[in-house]
Amino acid sequence: MFEKVDLLINNSLIVTMNSKRDVIPRGYVAVRDGVIVDVGFGDGRSKYSAEEYLELRRSVVVPGFVCAHTHFYGLLLTGSPWFAFIEPPSDFQQNLQRIWWALDESLTYEDIYVSALLGSILFARTGTTFFKDLLDAPNVTLGSLDYIEKAVNEVGIRGLAGFSVTQRRSIEEGYIGIQENERFVRKTLNDAKTNVKGIFTLHASFTVTDDVLIKSKELADKYNTIYAMHVEEGLIDVYHNIERYGKRPFERLRDIGFLSPRFLAIHGVQITEDEMKILKHYDVKIAHNAMSNMINGVGVPPVGKFLDLGITVGIGNDGYVMDVFENMRATYLVHKVVNKDPRVLTPLKVVEMATVDAAKALNVYSRVGSIEVGKEADLTIIVPEIVHTPLNEHTIYGHLVNSFNGKDVWGVLVKGRWVTKERKVLTVDLEKVLDYAHKVIERLWDRMLSMESKYKVEWLKP
Ligand SMILES: [Zn+2]
């Protein structure tokens, strides 16, 4: 009489993010073999008998959040003594040279592994179940992505990872980066057990030649993956392209045949109206990182205009703050400030940018990003500790953007498997991970402080 399922979440407020954006005030989600088999109104117990039954007072079920752009290794900088050691950067280019490239060049395989462990734990604990990561580690390029894969698989979330191809030190290193990307794509392509798939990624248009761009794009076409690169984050990207090629970055990328719907452009802060039309024409996706743009002082991209043009924008964190609620809130606020117009971005649009739109940007929307029958059961269950106004189908988007935070996440499921539950990580021993990670990070910081030169990275002109 009752159909058997593995998990029945009952009597919850369900934010489906389906095409009609249905919110079910009191409903259920049924999961079998890692897949959502039913979503509906009322009491799911009238239809299903479940191996595991979950009913929590004032619970909200949302699709597992999707992060359109991160760098796990960015977490290694939090609180680092390096910031006191260097002369503070006064612009974006100095920021890269003095902070990011100094870190990149100091990374070991173990640092990469530790950063991905910490990042995956922080994601899982705050509701993000799917991500896209870019790794820059020029001294340990080959094999480096395996360490991200190992950590992510241990924690149990999932995502896409690529090595950030650059030629800032030598022409050759660009090809070694591509080699690592192709190796990892081939390794993970048909591996049903791994939670991490390879993609083709590059650092930025001002640190790579046309040949490396075209090769990466050709390989992304061959293996049918997305490909991603930072574009127009800082003015250096614009100046370099105009000086060397007589074109702005997106014009150059268009003219060499680089753009397509599977290209994810990260940032686009300095973009012009003409370039926005190019993005629209090629259906290029954007990863927007509001808090990273703030801390780097690079400016604010015209996200309201992207959306008016129908360009898909997913929210990322760029390796800064991993809590999706903080990133949603920053996105919601900053465009109102910069446009002096409180109408820019509704709460619903911001939630879309962290779920369905980010999933579309990563080309995984057929599997994740919404709660619909047939989709994989990546679910985030929120039980807010305090809700100061009524929680219902009319107020939920406002709460998601204005009042909830990562600590309100009660648990997350990935493909129907609990990764966090009762606000605890189930898959790894958190205390052991933290003790181990702190030791590794202290060694990394010591290594950075003992580098012969404060800014040993050389600026290379390709
Ligand atoms: Zn980035």
TrEMBL record:
<dbReference type="InterPro" id="IPR011059">
    <property type="entry name" value="Metal-dep_hydrolase_composite"/>
</dbReference>
<keyword id="KW-0378">Hydrolase</keyword>
<feature type="domain" description="Amidohydrolase-related">
    <location>
        <begin position="60"/>
        <end position="419"/>
    </location>
</feature>
<dbReference type="GO" id="GO:0016810">
    <property type="term" value="F:hydrolase activity, acting on carbon-nitrogen (but not peptide) bonds"/>
</dbReference>
<dbReference type="InterPro" id="IPR032466">
    <property type="entry name" value="Metal_Hydrolase"/>
</dbReference>
<protein>
    <submittedName>
        <fullName>Amidohydrolase</fullName>
    </submittedName>
</protein>
<dbReference type="InterPro" id="IPR050287">
    <property type="entry name" value="MTA/SAH_deaminase"/>
</dbReference>
<dbReference type="Pfam" id="PF01979">
    <property type="entry name" value="Amidohydro_1"/>
</dbReference>
<dbReference type="InterPro" id="IPR006680">
    <property type="entry name" value="Amidohydro-rel"/>
</dbReference>
